[in-house]
Design a protein that fits this description.
Helix 3 crosses helix 5. The protein has a single domain, classed as START domain (Alpha-D-Glucose-1,6-Bisphosphate, Chain A, domain 4). It has 197 residues and is an alpha+beta fold. Strands 1-2-8-7-6-5-4-3 form an 8-stranded antiparallel β-sheet. The chain is built from 5 helices and 8 strands; from the N terminus they run H-H-E-E-H-E-E-E-E-E-E-H-H.
Length: 197
C-alpha cells in the first residue's frame, strides 16, 4: 500500500471494519499471534469504536464466566483497581469501576457502566456516570472449533480526562493509540485469564 493511500485512509472519515462479519476462520488465523484490532474514525478524524478480535482456547461458557464475573476484574484486567457490582439481574448489571494508570504520576479514573445482555453470548455497555464523557462498547463470543472467537469493542472519550486533555489536543494520534491499545490489551487479558496463563 502506498504511503499516500495509507494517509488518506487515516484522515478520511471511515467506518469500522466489522471483524464479526469476517469469516471466523480468517479471524482465528489472523489472531493466532495476538489480537486483531480495527478502529473507526469519525468525520473529524477522531477515534471511534476500537474492536479487538482473537481466538481463545476455551468454550464460550468459560469465556462468558470470566467476562461476567465483574468483581474479579481487579485481579486480572489491567488498570482496574476496584470493581463493585451495584445491581444485577438476569438482563445485566450496573458496575462501578476505579482505575489507576501509573505514568510519571498515577491518574485515577472512576465510572459506572450499565451492562445489558443481548443474546446468548453478547453483552453491551454504556456509561451511567463517571470521569469520561463517553464510554460504551460490547463483548461478543462466537463458538469456533474447540474454542471461541472473542470480540471486544470499546469507544471511550479519553480527551475528557482533565490531565490528558491538553496532551491529546496537542498530539491527537495518542488518542488513536490509546483506543487501539486498550482494546488489544484487555482482549489479551481475557484470553490469558480464561486459558490460565
Amino acid at each position: 500500500m502506498s504511503p499516500l493511500l495509507l494517509l488518506a485512509l487515516l484522515v478520511a472519515p471511515t467506518r469500522a471494519l466489522d471483524l464479526g462479519r469476517l469469516d471466523p476462520g480468517t479471524v482465528a488465523a489472523l489472531s493466532a499471534d495476538g489480537p486483531v484490532v480495527a478502529m473507526a474514525l469519525d468525520a473529524r478524524g477522531r477515534p471511534g469504536l476500537a474492536t479487538a478480535a482473537l481466538y481463545v482456547e476455551a468454550p464460550p461458557q468459560a469465556v462468558w464466566n470470566a467476562l461476567s464475573s465483574f468483581v474479579d476484574y481487579s485481579g486480572w484486567v489491567p488498570q482496574v483497581a476496584q470493581a463493585e457490582v451495584l445491581a444485577a439481574d438476569e438482563t445485566g448489571a450496573t458496575v462501578a469501576y476505579k482505575l489507576a494508570f501509573d505514568f510519571f504520576l498515577t491518574i485515577h479514573v472512576e465510572y459506572t457502566l450499565r451492562y445489558r445482555r443481548v443474546g446468548p453470548w453478547r453483552m453491551e455497555w454504556t456509561q451511567v456516570e463517571g470521569d469520561l464523557a463517553r464510554n460504551e462498547g460490547f463483548w461478543e463470543i462466537q463458538p469456533w472449533g474447540r474454542g471461541s472467537l472473542l470480540y471486544y469493542g470499546v469507544l471511550a472519550d479519553y480527551s475528557s480526562m482533565r490531565l490528558l486533555k491538553g496532551v491529546l489536543e496537542a498530539q491527537p494520534a495518542l488518542e488513536l493509540g490509546m483506543g487501539a491499545s486498550s482494546a488489544a490489551v484487555v482482549a489479551r487479558a481475557v484470553k490469558e485469564r480464561v486459558e490460565g496463563r
